[in-house]
Specification:
The complex is a heterotrimer of chains A (180), B (624) and C (102). With 180 residues, chain A is mainly α. Chain A is built from six helices and no strands. The radius of gyration of chain A is 21 Å and the shape is globular. The mean pLDDT of chain A is 84. The chains are: A mainly alpha (180), B mainly alpha (624), C mainly alpha (102). The interface between A and C is large, with 95 and 75 residues.
């Protein structure tokens, strides 16, 4: 029974995930695209929960679906309504064909790998304890095995923040020039 | 004795370094005095070492002193070893003694030159290098000194660096000496391969007797000796080297460095005795050189070049001596030659100095009337050169010629060549003397002659020349083979002669040599003083110095030049240049074609990325 | 383990990735391209977490969080650029930005 329920949740989340992803790509108005991406992120968080990633799921919803996407929406609102009239056109004539071919090839290859080469390697997950994916476990890893990655990530964030400020200041200067 | 040897070696080096480091902080004269005094100090040290050695028994006189392992490669270790034995002490005395006299002479001669300090630093460097050459306790150190005397010679020939001819002469000397250095280095490689060592005793004990290897080793050493001593066929650099200042010509290109070849043969005589063909070759080349140089000297008009050719000729005698195995005789002649040839050069230098640097004997003609002292000392030098009793050359040269008589048929041929050479020596030496120092002064000489404070030259030039004149006068009495021979006895433990002429041969030879020498002087007198017979027109063969320069020009320069031009037209233009322009064209064309892909469309770039990913994945899939 | 095996997640991730990639390759609006890149990043995150579950180790989740941080940085810079474009009244069309054309 529990198993069935899990399947139902999985299918629901996966379906939502795919549909919202397609919506992100297809909407001609970026505002709707951004909203769809929030749905995509939320459904992914559900999948993370199913995989035992409680902390990551929470982070996904709070940081990604919350903070980052709010920033997106702010920018889109700031730039105003710029609906794309012909969202798919432009570029060389073979662009669409090539893109679909390349994307299809990648997808087909992954399916081939999973279906033919992986065997039952992917169907025997390890048993996990109750503490799997808890903030405590992740925090311990971050401060022990992955300390360097942790610090480097913080520096990357810092650099990005500085870069954002510089870009903004530059843009403000240009704007004042344009007005004057 | 060991300490004295080190002091003797290192004092000139210290002087060279001190003058170089002090630079313009010391006056120019100070550099001259530093150089003179240190060389004299080296001489004193050599004298101390000599007396120390003399006090010991003959077999205990050699002493080696190693300061540290100088070079270490795998199983080979070469120490910074000095070997002071009967042979090297003789050379040390000659080098430091004659060297200090000549450098003292240069104090006056070089006075007023712009770059006196450079000159004296080079001179000190040369004395150090030469002492290293003679004191080195193994062949590697000898080679190091060998190369360094070549370097100092190069620097000093090119001392007048603003003169293109001096630079060319310096380069010529360097290249020819480098050739000799190379053959010598090859010989050393062979020695290392065969014996595994380079110290004299070890090499002598282990080197092969006869056979190709022994011949090649001796040939390589002989090549070095020929180049350094300006013997056929590597002699053409020496006359040009007269571009250097006169003290340089006296010290390096007459008294010491050019005789290093003789020292080398005597020092490594065991190796040459193991390859007697090469040793005979050395004697033959020496004989050929002495005749040829004598012939060329007959027609030269540059006073220093005449003396330079006479140097070549005299070293030819030494090679004859060393090649025939009469080592003490060769060393004896080396010593007396150092005295009288330095004397000739320095006396010529006084004349040149007094006539504002003119070296052409036609313009110098008759200058001896104005300089009686120089005339006398030049006469002494010339008499010693020709070998007239009782001057130094008589004793040393005749004993070498006599040795030829004691060496079978081959020796007889060489004996004839030597006698012819003695005759030529008489003619060219006194041609020079009669033209320059007797007769009425030429207009040029009268006009340009200027006395130095009522003397013929600065005091430092006069007393040194006087000392050398005394040495040229009495130096020969050190040994008179038929009667007494202390030098031969002294050298016996190191270089025992393998050819020892009998007293009869000595007397016969002395008579002949003296007679032909006097005959040569007579001919010169008839031609240049009495003028009863007109001077024969000079053969172009002599004037062109037997066309050696032209031969080398055709053989090496023109051949290489033509070959390079051929390479230029056949290889460089079509292949190298063609390849470069073809590559440039290819790069240009291909980038023009490829620039189409750089459309500036980010989306297309992303497409290429995705396509690449797809293909890579496919490759990995296929590879598994 | 209850529910689907890991291969399902892998295939879902592949579809998501392809969708995002198609968005990057086909759309001209830089905002939507940025959003598509987010989808691609999230598909990778999904894989990381799925394999973390498979191996029973949390390292994959640690990586996922790092990826999130990097994605946030990327969004900051990307949006900054887009705002700058908007300020200069440049049309929001990546096909128009082809100064680097060869």
């Amino acid at each position: 029974m529990a198993n069935f329920l899990v399947w139902v949740v999985w299918f629901g989340a996966a379906f939502a995930c795919l549909v919202s992803a397609l919506a992100v790509v297809s909407f001609s108005n970026p505002f709707y695209s951004a909203l769809s991406l929030i749905g995509n992120l939320a459904s992914l968080a559900v999948l993370y929960l199913l995989l035992g990633g409680e902390f990551v799921a929470a982070g996904q919803v709070l940081v990604y679906g919350g903070a980052v996407m709010v920033m997106f929406l702010f920018v889109i609102a700031y730039l105003g309504d710029r609906t794309d009239e012909s969202p798919w056109s432009g570029g060389p004539s073979w662009q669409v064909f090539g893109a679909v071919l390349a994307g299809g090839a990648i997808l087909a290859e992954v399916i081939v790998v999973v279906g033919l080469k992986a065997g039952n390697l992917l169907s025997q997950p390890k048993h996990i304890g109750r503490s799997f994916g808890t903030p405590a476990a992740l925090g311990r890893l971050f401060l022990t095995n992955h300390l360097l990655a942790f610090e480097v990530t913080s520096i990357v964030l810092l650099i990005a923040a500085v870069g954002g400020v510089v870009l903004g200041a530059h843009a403000r200067e240009l704007g004042s020039d344009a007005r004057a | 004795m060991k300490i004295a040897a080190w002091i003797c070696l290192l004092l000139p080096l210290a002087s060279a370094l001190a003058i170089t480091i002090a630079g313009t902080r010391i006056p120019r004269r100070a550099a001259a005095y530093v150089s003179t005094l240190t060389t004299m100090g080296a001489f004193v040290a050599a004298v101390v070492a000599f007396f120390d050695m003399w006090s010991k028994a003959p077999h205990a006189r050699a002493a080696a002193t190693t300061s540290w392992t100088w070079l270490s490669a795998g199983q080979y270790h070469f120490g910074l070893t000095l070997l002071v034995d009967q042979l090297s002490i003789v050379m040390m005395l000659i080098v430091a003694g004659v060297g200090s006299l000549i450098i003292a002479y240069a104090v006056g001669y070089m006075d007023g030159e712009d770059e006196e300090r450079r000159f004296f630093a080079y001179m000190s460097l040369f004395v150090f290098s030469m002492l290293l050459l003679v004191e080195g306790g193994n062949l590697l150190l000898l080679l190091a000194g060998w190369g360094m005397v070549g370097l100092s010679s190069y620097l000093l020939i090119g001392y007048y660096q603003e003169r293109a001819s001096a630079i060319a002469a310096a380069k010529k000397a360097f290249v020819m000496n480098a050739f000799g250095d190379a053959t010598m280095a090859l010989a050393l490689f062979l020695l290392i391969k065969v014996t595994g060592r380079l110290d004299y005793a070890g090499v002598f004990a282990h080197s092969p007797h006869g056979g190709t290897t022994a011949n090649l080793i001796a040939l390589g050493l002989l090549g070095g000796a020929l180049a350094k001593s300006a013997q056929l066929p590597l002699h053409t650099w020496l006359p040009d080297a007269m571009e250097g200042p006169t003290p340089v010509s006296a010290l390096i290109h007459a008294a010491t460095m050019v005789t290093a070849g003789v020292y080398l043969i005597v020092r490594t005589h065991v190796l040459f005795e193991n390859a007697y063909i090469v040793q005979d070759l050395a004697a033959g080349l020496g004989a050929a050189t002495l005749v040829m140089a004598g012939l060329i000297a007959l027609v030269q008009t540059d006073i220093k070049r005449v003396i330079a050719y006479s140097t070549m000729s005299q070293i030819g005698y030494m090679f004859v001596g060393a090649g025939l195995g009469a080592y003490p005789n060769a060393m004896f002649h080396l010593m007396t030659h150092a005295f009288f040839k330095a004397l000739l050069f320095l006396a010529a230098g006084i004349a040149i100095h007094a006539v504002t640097g003119e070296q052409d004997i036609r313009k110098l003609a008759g200058v001896g009337k104005l300089m009686p002292f120089t005339k006398i000392v030049f006469l002494i030098g010339s008499l010693a050169l020709v070998g007239i009793f009782p001057f130094a050359g008589f004793f040393s040269k005749d004993s070498i010629i006599a040795a030829a008589l004691a060496h079978g048929t081959y020796g007889a041929i060489i004996w004839v060549a030597c006698i012819v050479g003695a005759f030529l020596t008489g003619v060219y030496a006194f041609r020079l003397y009669f033209i320059v120092f007797t007769g009425e002064p030429s207009a040029f000489a009268r006009e340009h002659f200027h006395a130095h404070h009522d003397k013929e030259g600065p005091l430092s030039m006069l007393w040194t020349v006087g000392t050398l004149a005394v040495l040229a006068l009495v130096g020969g009495f050190l040994q008179f083979a038929p009667v007494w021979h202390p030098l031969t006895d002294w050298l016996a433990p190191v270089a025992a002669p393998i050819t020892d002429p009998s007293n009869t041969q000595e007397w016969i030879t002395s008579g002949f040599a003296l007679a032909v020498g006097l005959a040569g002087i007579g001919v010169a007198y008839v031609l240049y003083v009495a003028r009863t017979v007109p001077v024969p027109k000079a053969l172009p063969l002599f004037e062109k110095k037997f066309y050696w320069d032209e031969l080398y020009d055709v053989l090496w320069y023109r051949t290489a030049d033509a070959f390079s031009r051929m390479l230029g037209t056949v290889i460089e233009v079509p292949l190298v240049a063609g390849a470069i322009s073809a590559m440039a064209g290819l790069a240009g064309a291909s980038s023009r074609e490829l620039s189409v892909a750089q459309s500036g469309l980010v989306r297309t770039y992303a497409l290429f990325l995705a396509g690449g990913l797809a293909i890579l994945t496919l490759v990995f899939l296929a590879a598994r | 383990m209850h529910g689907p095996d890991i291969q399902w997640y892998v295939i879902l991730s592949a579809i998501l990735f392809t969708t995002g990639a198609l968005g990057v390759m086909l759309r001209r609006n830089p905002l939507i391209i940025l959003l598509s890149v987010e989808i691609m990043l999230n598909s990778a995150n999904l894989l990381l977490i799925a394999f973390s579950r498979l191996h029973g180790r949390e390292d994959g989740q640690v990586f996922a969080i790092s990826v999130m941080a990097v994605a946030a940085s990327e969004v900051v810079v990307g949006l900054g650029l887009i705002v700058a474009m908007g300020r200069r009244n440049v049309e929001l069309d990546v096909d128009k930005l082809r100064t680097l054309r060869g």
